[in-house]
Amino acid sequence: MGYLSEKAAYLKGLAEGLDIDKSSKEGKLLLALVEAFDEMAIEVDDVVIIQEDMQQQLDEVDEALADLEEEFYELDDDLDELEDDFEDDFEDDFDDEDYEDEEWEEEYSFECPKCGAVIHIKPELVSDDVKFIVCPDCGAKIELEFDCETGEE
To answer: Residues 109, 82: one domain?
Structure first.
């Protein structure tokens, strides 16, 4: 029982002990006030109980969120560590001298006359049978012409 409930019970007992005339206007008013105060005290007690339950639930949610944050940041740290390790390993394993120019395929590059997009074609995709290509950006049909002596476009 809360403080207001105790006060309301005290006032109710006091009003009963005073032997207030219930038929007089003043007596009716005084007893109605004591009764209203008693009902308000009950409602306030209910609100306090609900608030305490909500506070407990909020504390539980806060703890769960803290646990999730901790797990997330641990995973994030682990991921950062793995990325760092991978980058270190890749930099150690990669040596520019291991890859000569001939290992990298060359491409034919040109601009689409319609939209200006730069188009790259691998040489193995171009043969005497291929007379045109389609621009991937605008869909324009582009005729291919090669210089017979150099093999270039």
So the answer is: no
Cβ-contact 135, 114 below 8 angstroms: yes
Average pLDDT of the residues in 74-97: 71
Q: Is the predicted pLDDT of residue 49 greater than 60, yes or no?
A: yes
In a shared domain, residues 20 and 85: yes
- Single pTM value for the model: 0.42
Q: Ramachandran region of residue 19, left (φ > 0), alpha (ψ -120 to 50) or beta?
A: left
User: Angle at the Cα of 106 (from 126 to 151), degrees rounded to 5?
Assistant: 50
27 in Cβ contact with 64 (< 8 Å): no
Q: What is the mean pLDDT of residues 2-9?
A: 88
Domain residues for the domain of 34 are 3-93
How many structural domains are present in the chain? 2
